[in-house]
Amino acid sequence: MDLYATPIDIGTRAPTVILNTADAAELGVHPLDRVEIQHDGSTVVGIVELTDELVDVGELAVTRPLGHIDGEVTVTIAPNPTSASSIRKKLDDIELEADELDAIVTDIKWDRLTDAELSAFVTSIYTNGLSRAEIVHLTESMVAAGETMTWDSGLVADKHSIGGVAGNRVTPIVVPIAAAAGVTIPKTSSRAVTSAAGTADTMEVFCDVELDIDEIRDVIAETNGCMVWGGGVNLSPVDDKIIRVETPLSLDPPGQMIASVLSKKKSAGSSRVVIDIPYGEGAKVHSLDAAREMAEDFDRVGSALDMTVDCAITRGSQPIGRGIGCGLEARDVLDVLQGNGPQDLRLKSINLADMLLSACDVDDTAAEILEDGRALESFREIIAAQNGDPDVTKDDLPIGEYTATIEAQRSGLVSNANNRLVNETARRAGAPKDKGAGLTLAVRVGDAVDESSVLFTIYAQTEEKLDEAVRFARQEVPVRVSGPDEALVERY
Amino acid sequence: MDLYATPIDIGTRAPTVILNTADAAELGVHPLDRVEIQHDGSTVVGIVELTDELVDVGELAVTRPLGHIDGEVTVTIAPNPTSASSIRKKLDDIELEADELDAIVTDIKWDRLTDAELSAFVTSIYTNGLSRAEIVHLTESMVAAGETMTWDSGLVADKHSIGGVAGNRVTPIVVPIAAAAGVTIPKTSSRAVTSAAGTADTMEVFCDVELDIDEIRDVIAETNGCMVWGGGVNLSPVDDKIIRVETPLSLDPPGQMIASVLSKKKSAGSSRVVIDIPYGEGAKVHSLDAAREMAEDFDRVGSALDMTVDCAITRGSQPIGRGIGCGLEARDVLDVLQGNGPQDLRLKSINLADMLLSACDVDDTAAEILEDGRALESFREIIAAQNGDPDVTKDDLPIGEYTATIEAQRSGLVSNANNRLVNETARRAGAPKDKGAGLTLAVRVGDAVDESSVLFTIYAQTEEKLDEAVRFARQEVPVRVSGPDEALVERY
Questions:
Q1: B9 → closest Cβ in A52, A114, A250
Q2: Class of domain A2-77
Q3: Mean pLDDT (whole number) for B207-228
Q4: I want to staple B321 with a disulfide (CB 3.0 to 4.6 A). Which of A206, A221, A440, B345 is the partner?
């Protein structure tokens, strides 16, 4: 059918075309069917939506992803992509070949799959898992579908935490240690999805984080390291599209996560990677056995991709550091770099940095680099290169002016500090949008407290958000205290 | 955030709202996030899309499902629906309770789930199955989510085939037999999705099939039976929405299918149901054991819903009847009603009708009602009540004027007639849109043929479609002939 196409300014994800209902009936297509649009000698695929009035008979409105199409087009029914049948195979628990995964990744890249198909792919991985061969092929396909960075320096390193632990802001400490030791470390991080802050959100307190690839090259050339938002660069973009459908369903299948992490690192040109796998109650990985299994997968898949991947299995059942929320975490980071700060954050950062240095055959220890001030100097250089103030002090960092303390209701021992509830309390207070919002923990699990001891202090930038965070914290009790004579976790 | 809402004529499935990118950033929402829209004292949920130009800052475009919203509104971020976490549970293979399934069905009814979530629900059922209790609860929820019909007549019966067999047009024979015997049979049927014709498409050759519930009542009052398109009435509308995402992925999990079928029958007020379960190579159900298991599920779930469900396990490895395609199937139907026609179609219709009559305690046999002309008389009454010509003869039925025959390439025995390839050949010829398009089979599996014997004849309404169907048939060989000395199915 010949139609006249006009761009319409709607930013749909998929390449959507809006047809008049009468034309759709004539073509025999329904909403969400695919059509092929021939225009100027090339053919693209569009997903159908219908209208009675917005688009006249004989016309075709094309949304922003197809905005280059304008004028006479020929529209025909398109077949379902072959990747749809591969997804069906995976649902039937049949292992997919490299070319099948490649076709799926290519179709995701070009937004040729509907949300329903993309979701089926993710759930098939969730329910049936991925073999190591599949993880390797998926990672390779995802790398090939995006931009890649290469470096003159022989050894390019990176670190990544699989997440789930509140606070845990080790990256802004590990990266300057590595950079100070001469290791090239092009670190990209995410923003918060359900947590109180992502590393990118916290770094934004100090400097710009939305850099393009050329700007990243300049920063690295100057300082060896960078700490930027991964969403600003086109490294493994298919991974971002997969995460978009995983998030609403809280799906994060291990095989997919390994492919996700390693595709980002491989695309960034890293060959030495340290992965932080926190485990325990309330972490993403619940048991030490599961953490070991994941570490083994990371190691094997990394080898197949010519990367040395070392895993640090860490305790993840409570937050790391004192501050939760961008500005409050930034204070912890600056404290540690200046030789103070929370001991748990300092120690974990040193351990991870030592693994990274050792993988890169560096002789200096992380503790030396931290203690003699080289890490702080490197940190200031990196934030200067990212347009931040290198002379930043704690007093410059944002902190909410409305505060409230949450106290123990009894004397006893701190028995639990729940990552999710701690994050959510900080979010109610305004994190990550309000840079000064969040909370600071006054205790760790195992600490003895008296009745009325402060457990944590909430900071907010408005009174309403403070009240909401206090209300939430009183109701959900993110930090629990048990009597010294209580052995029961729960009566059922 | 206060915005000014204006309806925009785009018929999205989900209630979509289009925000200016700047307002979305201020609100902290991304594409596909949910927002709550307060308007005139009531609150509705919308799914977010973004634009830079179509909608100004401070404005909100609402698509057709939200077309009643106009003027000042307050927009806030909406939480994910609780049914999303129930879907997650089902993905983890945890049995869902009645209230959880009810919440999912309600959210599907009101289009509150994204396609990604709906797809995850279907794939969770596909990979983890449904317990009988879950099927019962799902069916009850789907019935409650739509309109229901009630009848004065004590015994209301229905029949249904789970599909997958080409031709197989038994409904227009069984319904008039039952109606002639005094049984109330409000039969709704589907249109073709991947087959050459649905029962509704074939009946449309004779009469109107898009009747509303009041019109159906009138037809039933006059004739005891009807044969209409199910999509025209609001019986179990949630089922239709689930099928929409199942179709592109070719997913049709048994538990979901049982809930689908029985929710339609229950909504139509039927208490005696006969289910046709064809099994065999190329059918939906591959083995006799699987067919028996499904029959047992139908029986148990039916009992829990106060319905008597009898299952007919039938052979499904080849088409039933001679004609494939609306007009050609209609000829077979008229032939059988007039005492002739393909024996396989006639026999199967009689067997199914006898099960239905016996479930309704009718003494007459189907063969009697067919042979003495009462079934034909009832058929003519029904099509008259549905605004068709009661005096229709075979010469009135559409038949493509372009024809070609496909012949055996060797002498031997017909070893295979593949349902899917037979349907696809008919579709290439123009079915179901072209009412005269399709094919007529000249042989059945097991028939001895000479070289150059006609296997089937293709009918089309244009030469192009005829050529395309012939090309497809020559390449894919829907009907295969083996030499009498060949025992191998395949060399591998």
A1: A52
A2: mainly beta
A3: 95
A4: B345
